[in-house]
Amino acid sequence: MRNLGRLFFFLLTATLCCPTLAADPQQKKQKKISPPAPTSSENQPAKKSGKDLRSSRDVRALPVSTVFPDPAHQHQLPDLIDIAQRRNRTTRASWEKARAATAASGVVASEFYPMLAVMASYGGGFWDFNLDANNNLSGLKNQAGLLGAVFSDAIPQDISLDQKAAGFYRSLNTGAALRWMLFDFGTRAARHDASKKIALAANFAFDASHQTVAYEVTQSYYAILAARRQTAAATSSARSADEVEKAAQARFDQGLITEPSLLQARQAKAQSSYALATARSSEELAWIDLTSAMNLPPETRFPLAPANFSAIRKQLQKPIDDFIRSALNDRPDLQAKAAIVQAREAELRASRSDSLPKLSLLGVAAYNRFDTTTQNTGPLDSFGFGLQNYGGFLTVEWPVFTGFAEENRTRAADAAKAAATEELALAKEKTISEIWRAYTHAKNAIARNEAAEAFQSAARATYESMLANFEQGLVPIQDLLLARTAETQAQMLVAESEYAIASSLATLAFGSGTIQPHKKNPPPR
Asked: What is the Cα–Cα distance from 316 to 504, expressed in whole angstroms?
């Protein structure tokens, strides 16, 4: 019985330590988690609103579309933009980034909730107990205590207690731990606010990608129309050169002009043929640019509706201040940079409050079962017991010294905020400069177009008069060729100035954030 009592005392003492030892890894694991705050308004997650954060339902992907232009339909600019945004990978990539930013904001918001972890383990092994001790319990005051209960008074004084025992054991450990951060001086709220601003910036970047696609398609569309006008002008020039060459050949056959004059007419015809080939090549390249902007195969061709350039000019009736004001208020890339500044400010607040104390609630519930066999313990060959442990704790954590890590993190957050502020100011200055440039370019293009149209009318009348007089032998062929060249040049200038108007106004709309990215029935956002 003495062996049994001593063995029971050893196993009871060792097992009582098991809950603590088993709870330590769990507690260390729980310290990595920051659960939610209670009812304090300071630590509650900010309410979502349309101004602060768009939910994931607001940022849905454009479907991977197989839509192609209808070869039987004349496509206007809004049609092309709609097809491009359904096919372009840039918008889908921006949408995925916005989704990721929204999910990251949800991860930060999870810190406001309790964190619950469950653990269970089962195993076994072999234990070997060796006791080398001398009994000297004469000075023990309370013989009715645990030692008295275990050893009783039957143990003689000052004798050897050397004992050996061994056995195989099985152990079952189960438990749950809950941690809930109650107060942290607004650290989690600031981090959550920063994540919302970053998600908002990603949504603005998504909008900016739509406008970029619309701008690229618009520029390519007007470039094709201008290339077509230039091809038409080169075709007209080739016809005029052919008329001149035929008229020169007829007069040469009649002996009315010399051979050098005939050769000059043939040279002009060959030159116009080269100009026509060049214009057609430019038109083909413009088609490739448009299909690339729309994410279509380069060989795709479809009818294009002509643009109303006279209506396009009316867009310049607003004063430049309206365009600048619209850009600073509505341009999505500027709004994204402003959201980044707000995110950096929130990160700075979080960094400053992170070094302050944090109050948490910790709860533990555990059950341990221990069963073992015994050797060298007399008649006792096995025994076991179970232990239940329930506890709750309020913990205060205060990082008093962290090797100046908190101070350096605060300096880094402050520098990041200053950099974001400067980037926003720089982007605004560049935007204003771009609007002034596009506005001035559009005004000059309109003036050039008016002069080119007048030049075209005069050059056409001059050429027709020169051709009639040449056929009557009243003017030399050199004057006729100059008149034909002037008419061709006027047609080219009209096409070029019309493209310059449309292109500069598209740049102005893009720079002011007013370019329309959708036609109708846009994909859900």
From this structure: 10
Mean pLDDT of 198-208: 92
**What residue has token string 């919302």?**
196
Distances (CA, A) of 289 to 210, 217, 297, 510: 17, 9, 11, 18
**Cβ neighbours of residue 31 under 8 Å, at least 6 residues apart?**
179, 397
Residue that has been written with the tokens 């605060």 in this structure: 410
Sign of CA dihedral 20, 25, 26, 28: positive
Angle at the Cα of 290 (from 286 to 291), degrees rounded to 5? 115
Residues 83 and 395: their CA atoms lie apart, in Å, by: 59
Question: Which residue's structure tokens are 């050797």?
Answer: 375
Residues for the chain: how many in total? 525
Helix residue ranges per DSSP H, 472-511: 477-511
* Cα 468–chain centre separation: 66
| Alpha-carbon distance values, 296 to 65, 89, 285, 290 (Å) | 11, 11, 14, 8
Whether 427 shows a pLDDT value over 70: the answer reads yes
| 29-65 residue pLDDT tens | 333 333 333 333 333 333 333 333 333 333 344 444 5
Cβ 413 vs Cβ 362: under 8 Å: no
Say how many C-beta atoms besides its own lie within 10 A of residue 207's C-beta: 22
Tokens (6 digits) for 432? 């204003």
